Each structure stands twice: as structure tokens, then as C-alpha cells.
Amino acid sequence: MSPAAARPRVSRPRAILFDWDNTLVDSWAVIHEARNSTMAAMGRPLWSLAETKERARLSLRESFPRDFGERWEEARQIYLGTYRAIHLDRLTALPGRGELLQGLADEGIFLGVVSNKTASLLRCEIERIGWSALFGSVVGAGDAPLDKPDAAPVLLALEPSGVDPGETVWLVGDTGVDMQCARNSGCVPVLLASGMSEEEFLGCPPRFVFSDCSALFRSIRGL
């Protein structure tokens, strides 16, 4: 946990909203392949995996108009076609995530997902990996009027919980977009990742930082 976690008044979360890709599941290889399939079809230079990890942050409706201009809808269909063809066969939970989610659910904490992944793909993946019953809400790209880092998807995800945004809501993710989304919605930004560049979080640092699931769960059990 970061030094900031030593603040004297830390509220036990009543709701925890998780990012999906590369917070709960390993999907960089699939995202990278779908992205480069799109780049090739659109006559653009391919990205390295490192570039994909650095640049793939926003939803398609936010990033593709910027990247492909007037042809962004065509590019979106190419990306989604490639992604749908491969994603379920390669879906892999990150270590300890299933146990973490079950433990948090057993603690009576409302759990939800807020992702910039296209909503239909997101729900298919959650169903395939067997976690649907653990989540009280699932919000993907396009479900809310705007996607992360806007607050709209967080507010939508919290509606079934009866919990208002604030100090008892943690938003757990692996990127600066997640931390910014937490800040924009008035929730607690929590980073679950290791080996991340500090530069990404300079504008919106996380309140807490955990390198693994066990540390996150122990911290919550201790509140």
C-alpha cells in the first residue's frame, strides 16, 4: 500500500468497482492483435505491444475518431470482428482475481465492473469466466452517455447498490484513466498493478497502491 494509505481515517468500502482488462483478466495480447489487424487493414503502421499497452486506454468511440478520422466506424468494425473471433478462447483470469472477488463478496461488499470495453464483449467475457453472479452491475463502453474517465459509467454502476459515490466507494484499476475516473466521480482511486510507470499517474495519483490481490484483500479485512 502507498504511504497515503496511512491516513488516520480510512473508510471501509461498501462498494468496489473494478476495471476489467488487465485488472481482472489478461487481455493485452488479444487487444494488441485486434488493434494491429485494424491498423493493417487501414494502411497504418503497426504498433508494438509496448505501444498498445501505452495507448489503448479509451473506449473505441472515444479513441477511434481521433485515430482514424472519418473512417473510424469502418475501423471499429474491423477491430470488433477480429476481437470477437479470438477473445473467448484466450480469456484468462489474472492470478488470484477469482479468489479476491469471492472473498470481497463474502464480506458483503457490492462489486461491479466499469470498463471501456464494448459492453457486449464485456458481458460475454464475464459470463464465460464464470463471475456473473459476483457482480451487482456491469457497465461497458456505450452503456452510459460517456465512457471512462467521465463519471457517468460509475454513477450508472452504483445505481443498484444504493451506495452514493464517495469515500466508501473504491474504483480499482491499472491505468491513469481509471484513477482519473475515480477522481471525477468522487470515489477512491485504487491501483492494482505492479511495474507501472509513475509518469502515467502524476496528474491523478492513486490513493492506495497494491501489487497483488492478497495485499488488497488484507487491507480491506483490516478496516
Walkthrough of the structure:
The protein is α/β, with parallel strands linked by helices. The chain has two domains: 3-26 and 93-221, Rossmann fold (3-Layer(aba) Sandwich), CATH 3.40.50.1000; 28-90, DNA polymerase, domain 1, CATH 1.10.150. The protein has helices at residues 28-41, 49-55, 60-68, 72-90, 97-106, 119-129, 152-158, 176-185, 213-221, and strands spanning 15-18, 25-26, 92-93, 110-118, 137-141, 169-173, 188-192, 208-210. The strands form two sheets. It has a six-stranded parallel beta sheet with strand order 5-4-1-6-7-8, sandwiched between helices. Strands 2-3 form a two-stranded antiparallel ribbon. α1 packs antiparallel against α4. The two termini are 14 Å apart.
Characterize this entry briefly:
The protein has 223 residues and is an alpha/beta fold.
Give the strand line-up of the largest sheet.
5-4-1-6-7-8
Give the helix level as a range of percent: 40-55%
Overall pLDDT metric: 92
CATH architecture of the largest domain: 3-Layer(aba) Sandwich
Beta-strand proportion: 15-25%
